[in-house]
Amino acid sequence: MAKLKLGMYWAATCGGCDVSVLDTHERLLKIVEAADIYFWPIAMDFKYKDVEAMEDGFLDVCLFNGAIRNSENEHLAKLLRKKSKVMVAYGACAAFGGIPALANFTTREKILEKAYKTTVSTDNPQGVYPQPSTKMPEGEITIPEFYNHVYKLSDIVPVEYTIPGCPPPADLLMTAVEAIVTGKLPPAGSTIAGEKTLCDECPLEKSEKPVINDIKRPFQVIPDGKKCLLEQGLICMGPATRSGCGAACIKVNMPCRGCFGPAKDIKDQGAKMLSALASIVKFDDEQKADQIINSMVDATGTLYRFGGANAILSPRRTEGEKP
Ligand code: SF4
Ligand code: SF4
Fold first, then answer.
1. Is the dihedral of CA 91, 67, 196, 185 positive or negative?
2. Residue 300: domain span
3. What pLDDT, on the 0 to 100 scale, is given for residue 319?
4. I need a labelling partner for 126 at 20 to 30 A (CA). Which of 15, 35, 119, 144 fits?
């Protein structure tokens, strides 16, 4: 059987998704047995012109990780889409915007101001910002344009499959590889993970009618390792998050941060979590309500830690900006 032609690319990302391929350990040999890698900039010195020279649809599969936050990311997303039969949003940033999309809760101007003017280590009295194009005596220098909004991959190009996680666990990657090799892929549009919420696969004890009257941060408490963490006042995103990671964080006493994105049929992970919280928080007076709300540090960032690309509750949206 002919080997698959595989591409892997990183856009706005930390590189953890690329490293996650190595988490497969000796199973990496299975991947190499089934596929030849034709493009993987983090691992080998490929050039963009190598991709441009490929025929359209040349790659069988492209695992695209990272969000789209500048013009280079967008260009590569469109180019690789053209060159790939199957496009996979690999990891939370490609799937939902991920950590880079936390920038959607502020603006491009404020980010540039912080990075190039107001940090204590910055000395830039003329307020010079990087420009997409700069004329120099030697010629024109160009760098990618920094966008005001961070997009998920499917906002830019059609995507066949999503493998969620920050980064995706090795088992999920192997499930996907197995499905590709055997031709037993789920219908296009599928997410390769569980369908229920993380609470459904969580081994901790849950009450019938949970009530909390305080919100705590992980460093403030040593949780009871047998009881639901949310019921102990820790913001655990389990009620709004897709299953499939095997409750990896919960098993080490850390609340879920939501890296698998919204569970099937949940439209907006942050709004769903807010609704779950509202149904269990108990307060007797306004003062207590304020205290609970204020104890949730960076509420938007917590509810949308990985899902900022299309957050319904974004402050910029409430200021009238279109997504
Ligand atoms: S909220 Fe978190 S700790 Fe509680 S059952 Fe759900 S996943 Fe488990
Ligand atoms: S428990 Fe939550 S944050 Fe941790 S790996 Fe699973 S989905 Fe991601």
1. negative
2. 198-318
3. 59
4. 144
